[in-house]
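hey all, quick one before standup. I had two proteins in the batch that finished overnight and I want to keep them in one place so we stop losing track of which output belongs to which input. First protein below, input sequence then structure tokens straight from the run.
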Amino acid sequence: MTIYISHITALECWRSGRFDARLRVPCSGKRVRHPVGSSELIGDADKAARARSRDADTAAFFQGRKAVDVDRARGDSLLLESGLPLGRVSRESPVHVVVPCTCDRIDRVGVRCHVHARPFPPGSFVRLDEGLYASSPELCFVQMASVLPALELLALGFELCGTYARNCDGRTRYGRPMLLTTVSALARYVESARGIPGAAAARRVLKHLVACSASPRETALTLLLCLPRRMGGYALSHPELNYRMDVPDARRDCTEKGYYLCDLYWSQAKLDVEYESDECHTGPSRIARDSERRDDLSHLGVSVRTMTNHQIMDLARFDKAARQLAAALGERVRPYDGFAQACRMLRAAVL
């Protein structure tokens, strides 16, 4: 018997971090390299996504054609523990599975069956264990696009392409060592998934996604600055998130570190915007380190601006900071009659 978990259940599997190894490209060496910076992270994740698109797990979906057994789903709760719902199935918190035919549906408390009679594109499933598969991050994104509003779907896209995870208990887990997927991998999958529910909605938001966000606040800041004016943003060009700035050997003796990570980096203007949270950027020692870091980046020709939580939460202060940033980038903030209302709606959704 083979189970294909999907939708929110598969998403919670990927959010848990327990199955990240299933997404990595196998390496010959014993030591697992941890990439640093957006370029390496995106490169590794995109390579893994391309490898998934060549496996046979998707073709196996139509071979079993057996009904999902809720007892087997409960039995897999030991594998899928750590806050995932398979061990406490109920009418309010069901296990979502996908089956290839209406005759495979099962009407029991704790299991929600989604029938998908058409072929899935390659790379749609990832093997978690013997007889147990989950929707890939790319298919998950499309499946959730059929039920989430556009802004929530955008936030999910940033998370799937970022280094943090929103757990089912509402807490955020930071410092994920890998990306679940990339914007280009999502785009390739969505293009091949035409006709699957959610694909059209997923396609509409792809152009607004940026990879490598390290926190929900970085995601919110990027959306506020870069979404179109009609959506409440300032329509600035997309930055690179957590861009790795390597120090040239010739300047290594004048800096503290060999590289620096820039929160929001615009390469054409050599401009870095740092988000300073209330928790991590207070105290004399941290303030001193931040000052030294700005001096080092300035030595490398990078202009550093800061954005505090107080600025983000205050509409007038954020508007001033966003317009100053636009001027520094040489970009124009065009007037729009309905912007104030769109801005308030966007802020209510992402902050």
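OK second protein, same deal, sequence then tokens:
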Amino acid sequence: DLHAKIYEVLIYAEDKAYDLGIESYNFINRGDYLKELIKIESIEELKQWYLEKMTNICTTIVTQKKTETNIIILKAKNYISQNYGKDISLDDVSHEVDISPYYFSKLFKEETGENFIDYLTKVRIEEAKKLLLNNKETSIKSICMDVGYSDPNYFSRIFKKCTGQTPTQYRERKM
């Protein structure tokens, strides 16, 4: 009875993983389960066998989830790097990666160590720094617009907060 119950629980766990799209259904491997189970005589061996199988299932689930998370974060970062000059929001990016804004915000913070707006600001300021140095004839207002800010005063405040100097000071000191 114990062998049958362990087999039942193990199959149930695999089915749940399969329902999540994580564990691929492999009937041939399950056939080996019965052969292996029949040979096990002690409770300790049975416990070890069960723990090994469940650990494999759980490891597969965790690995798959981590891979999916990495893909989501990479896709989000790519979207940000291609669209930082537009008025983009957390909702826009979460829609792009097809998850809820709340979950995206939580996931982004966990994986990158910074929240979405801080990351977007960092990307925009880094691009503004490049533009300030490489396009000396371009107005700061134009650069402000190019990197996604509509208010030059706000842009200057954010730039100073991030770099310790205004855009004009940054341009002049780097010349």
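Flagging for whoever picks this up: The first helix runs from residue 2 to 19. The chain has a mean pLDDT of 89.
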